[in-house]
């Protein structure tokens, strides 16, 4: 039997899913033990006990200077910026992407411009944003929008263009206006793709957020990571990186659940 035709059982699939994480954890534990055996004060690979102590200090002990629980206050600050940027990006991308996909004149006007904008490295614009918009929240949110929105616009426009022409013709035959066709034919079919686009852009959005927080901020997950790096506090950096990853994984899973719950037919399309 060819390997391409074999599929793992549910139990084997679960075991295979966990295997890379277990191997990575074991490699870290053995590497940390080896380094600490040579130098008990080594900071590069802290022990698991060191991680537990740092997490307890950051999450459950109030900071003496601010009185805040740093992990939770940093998480709240970062999530507000991230969700604001993604919400604005979603609104802009949905409107412009649908119009570019539907209207040939707007496609001729905006599609090349959006294509060029999407190629500009967003991080290269960060100094410009800080100069123009200041060092506050606006520039950080703007960086996420600039980095995420053009890609989603192009994806949604392509999805709208891929819709069967017969659907548009039938809607026109029934007397539908461009507005009605957009709302009743195009919009319902590109919304599942919008959710998928958001899932794919979670990684880049976090990247832009952390870069902005690292350069100019007084709170946030990215700010804390770059603040403690000067002290080689890997016992703080590693848990923060894992925490950011966990938040992103949960957001990804919630978005996928939302897509399936609201648009169950999109899952059937994917399986087909």
What does this entry look like structurally?
With 272 residues, the chain is mainly alpha-helical. It has a single domain, classed as Orthogonal Bundle (MetI-like fold), CATH 1.10.3720. The protein has twelve helices and no strands. Helix 3 runs antiparallel to helix 8 and helix 10 runs antiparallel to helix 11. The longest helix is centred in the N-terminal third of the chain and has 33 residues. The protein is globular.
Strand content: under 5%
Largest sheet: none
- How large, in whole angstroms, is the Cα Rg? 23 Å
Domain unit count: 1
Q: How is this structure best summarized?
A:
With 272 residues, the chain is mainly α. It has twelve helices and no strands.
Helices and strands in order:
Layout: H1 10-38, H2 48-59, H3 70-102, H4 104-119, H5 126-133, H6 137-162, H7 165-173, H8 178-200, H9 202-215, H10 221-228, H11 234-262, H12 264-271
Helix pairs in contact: 2-11, 3-4, 3-6, 3-8, 3-9, 3-10, 4-6, 5-6, 6-8, 6-9, 8-11, 9-10, 10-11, 11-12
List keywords for this structure.
272 residues; mainly alpha; MetI-like fold
